[in-house]
Structure formats: structure tokens, C-alpha cells
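Thread: carboxymethyl coenzyme *A complex, take 2
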Amino acid sequence: MPDTLTITDNRTGKKYEIPIEHDTVKAMDLRQIKVHEDDFGMMAYDPAYMNTASVKSNITFIDGDKGILRYRGYPIEQLAEHCTSFLEVAYLLLHGELPDRPHLEDWRYNIKMHTFVHENIKKLMEGFRYDAHPMGMFISTISALSTFYPEAKDIMNPDVRRKQMYRLIGKVPTIAAFTYRHSKGMPYIYPDNELTYAGNFLNMMFKIGQSYKPHPVLEHALTVLFILHADHEQNCSTNTMRSIGSSHIDPYSACAGAAAALWGPLHGGANEAVLRMLDEIGSKNNVSAIIKDVKEGKRKLMGFGHRIYKNYDPRAKVIKQLAYEVFEVTGTNPKLDLALELERIALEDDYFVKRKLYPNVDFYSGLIYEAMGFPMDFFPVLFAIPRTAGWLSHWQEHLLDPEQKIARPRQIYLGAGERNWIAINKRS
Ligand code: CMC
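Output below.
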């Protein structure tokens, strides 16, 4: 059987044979379909990229129907269970293979050499109001890094690219922690490079005086959360990273754009929205009223549903289990019972069953973050820290892909035809 698709254009009766590769046809192959020789040719219309592959990628695999997520072929459950450091997974995403000991040490060393930020970054952050949203501060500060490292725009130079990766992965926890300390009016804590990636971050967040030591269970939980959030193929923010990067701007500017996309409540801002929703529901007695509103289309159940997963999000499974380990240390989050009840009712309800709406990664993560002492508006920042490694992997893959060019979709123009300018006093 030939790997082709035959299309008959009923407007002209002409037949076209289009090659199929990877169960996909090339949208550009449709361009030959024309009614007249001077027609532009046929395009594919796909708002929100519901059925369009815009890249070929080797980084992350998801089977949404089966609830499978793999980084570079490794199941997420195995990485979450066995990797003892987030940097091991960041290396895997960026290099395609798990590091052996010398490579991991070298990688760690290089990242650790770039955890400090220029003192002027602190001054820049002091300019934010006391109540500035941490994600707004985070995005702006990441963007400002491009002014500190102007050489970063030499994006086709592999050494320059590598250096910016060290810097970005090294500095995002520092910047994130500084946004928190700023909002609390507390002195910034500088990185401690003797600690792990997650441990150093907790230290910069919560250290007061000399006595603070990150609790090993919480440090481990944060490492797992970082691993689970490190990449998720072509989601809104990664697509933004690729799209901005395709203009050949520096990675700081592209990362700031990706982080902005992540902040939205339909994407990484959902973890904050879930907790606000649980606060609003207040008690189990109000769960059915919320479900009713959701079914009537008045609101969404935050932390539920996914474009790709039509099954339980594998990350949510790991997080749900992790929550119990964290609560052993922190004491339980009273909202857990409410979340479990909401999940129980939703998963039995025909509305959710029919639409295959399951809890996603954001449904339980906020409960852990809150129990660990992170404020609600800080949750999207916690998502952005590990996702930076994923964004950078996709940014590099995109730049090196000979099939890619500047991202530039087409449109179907439905506005007015040509008309003549009218003087202001003659306009109705
Ligand atoms: N609550 C109630 N109904 C929902 C929900 C929800 N959370 N999500 C989807 N639906 C309904 C939707 O109304 C539609 O119903 P109908 O067919 O009657 O019009 C159907 O399910 C299909 O939904 P969709 O909007 O076409 O799905 P999508 O792929 O465009 O949206 C989504 C995916 C994640 C944006 C959406 O499910 C959503 O808004 N969920 C809540 C926000 C959230 O938790 N986001 C985090 C996503 S996971 C982490 C991440 O990506 O950062």
C-alpha cells in the first residue's frame, strides 16, 4: 500500500496524491490545490493547533489516551523515583542521555558557578512594589538578564548557547527566591553551592538566621516536583519559547516570553487557581453547588482537563502520593479532603466522564506547595523554575532543526475589502 493520501477537489474534479510521513501530511503539500492557476492555493485552518504538529522532536513523548509521559524515552515515574537530583533530569532533557558520574559532576559544577546574580539585579528588583506578583517580577527579571549578557544573542555559537543554559538554569532559583524575599521585605539570601539544587532554593527562600536547614523529606519532595514539571512537549509556553526563539533573539528574552505564557490560569497559573477555588468552596457541603455551576458552563473546575491527556495525568498520580509524604512532616493540608471529595464526585459524574476530564498536574501540587509554606501567588514561579530546562531543550532543538524557520502562521482574512479613506467630518 502506498504511503499517500489521495484528495479529490470537487470544485475542479482534480485529484492530488500527497505523501504521508509519520501519519502526517505536510500542510505545504496542500498549496498545489488550486481552482485557478493564479490562486494562492489551499491552506490548513487549525485554531489553537488542535491537530497540527509544528515540530519534529526527540525530547518528550506523551500518549494522552494511555496517560504516558517520557523524557527522552524514560518513563516519568522512573525518573521521579530514582533520580536524586533535578540537575540529572535537566541534563537528560538537554543532552538526550542520562549523565554518567563525571558528566553529572561537570554539569553540576558549571551550573553552580552561575547561581549568583549581578548585584544590579537586586537593585532592579528593589524597584518593584511590595505587593508585586512574584511571577511578574520573575518574568521581568529574566528578561533583564539579556541586558547583562549581550553576548547571548550569538545563538548559533554552541559555546555561547551552553553558557546561557548554565546561567539560566543556575539563576532561576535565585531570582525566584529573591521575588519572595522582596515581597516579604526580608533580606535576600545568596546561593549556597554546597546544597542541592532544591535544597539551595529552599535555603534562599526560608533561611532566617543561621539555624535553617532544609528538611530532607521536603527537599526530596521539591526535587520530585521539579522533575515532574521539567518538560511537557509542545504546550503553550514551550511553543512560545520556540516561536520567540525562531526569530533568533537571545534565550533570556525567549524565556521571559515563555514564562509569561506559563503564568496564565489555563496553563501553569492553574495551580494557584485551584487553591483559590478550594478556598472559595470552603467545605464539602459546597462541592455539589460548584459541580452544578461547572456543568452549566458558568465556570471551570481548575486543575481538571488537559488538551492531550484523556486519562489520569501521570504526574498527578505521583504528586497525589507525594502529598502524603509531605503532610507527614508538615501536617495535613485541610484542603486535601476537599480536593479528594471534588475529585471523587467529578470522576463519577457523567459530564466529566464523557469529556474525559481528569485531574491534571496542577490539581494536587498547590496543596503540597501550601503545606511547605509557599504562598499561593508563588506557585507559578515554582512551575517556571524546572520548566526552564525544558524550554531551553526545545529552544536549542528548534534552532538546530534545518526544517525550521521563523514561526509565522497564516490567517484567513475576513475583514473589509479595499475602501477609500474618509475625512473625519464625513464619518458617521
Ligand atoms: N472544567 C469544566 N469543563 C471543562 C474543563 C474544566 N476544567 N476543561 C475542559 N472542559 C470541557 C470544555 O468546556 C469542553 O466542553 P464542551 O465539549 O461541552 O464544549 C470540553 O471539556 C473540552 O474542553 P476544551 O476546552 O475544548 O479543552 P482544551 O484542550 O481546549 O483545554 C485546558 C484544555 C487545560 C485549557 C482545559 O481543560 C482547562 O481550562 N482546564 C482548567 C485549567 C487547568 O487546570 N489548566 C492546567 C492544565 S495542565 C498544566 C499545564 O498545562 O500547565
